[in-house]
Amino acid sequence: IxxxxxxxxxxxxxxxxxxxxxxxxxxxxxxxxxxxxxxxxLILNQEFRGRGFVRGLMILPWAMPSIVNAAMWKWIYNADxxxxxxxxxxxxxxxxxKVWLAEPTTAMVLIILAxxxxxTPFTVILILAALQTIPDDxxxxxxxxxxxxxxxxxxxxxxxxMPVLMVAGLLQFIWGFQTFELIAIVTGGGPFSSTxxxxxxxxxxxxxxxxxxxxxxxxxxxxxxIFIPAVIYIR
Length: 235
What we know:
Low-confidence stretches: none
Radius of gyration: 21 Å
Mean pLDDT: 90
Number of helices: 11
Order of helices and strands: HHHHHHHHHHH
Helix content: over 70%
Largest sheet: none
């Protein structure tokens, strides 16, 4: 049937919705991860007691298997016995337990937060390594010239770690398109397909609906989309 599957994809509201959801998920995740990554890396780059232990502890969320991480967040967000409801209730922020994953916007926000918790440590490691390559002489010279801490960050730190920030951002964006376990276990793509990412849509089309040709076309088109930032990363 030549390229009919690809033409149908461009008119498929479910695929376009999953594409939009994936872009939204990846972009917001990357922005938050980079901001948190810089902030945490700056703290861990300072001298303080127990720094090595804290650095090692920081890696744990990223080292956790994706399925275990997804199961953990599913329990945290559970409407009946979840830790999130229990904490907010004990702090008197909410008066009764809420079904957090029943509303599309809230579900997307919570999924992004769960992904940020797991992926931020990788960004921290990259940025921390970049910070340790910056010579102390530059900061000493800036202090002699009367620069504030904020000015030193803007004029010295940020420009010198920018290449690493670009690499981390591109990698996290690409990995955002590969997210599967978190969505499949925590929300299943709901509610109303608001958190159905591309990988989940490809899986459902191919192995649940058994539309192998259409699912393959969907996977190829998704690969082409990921190929663009991948080329930028390689260059």
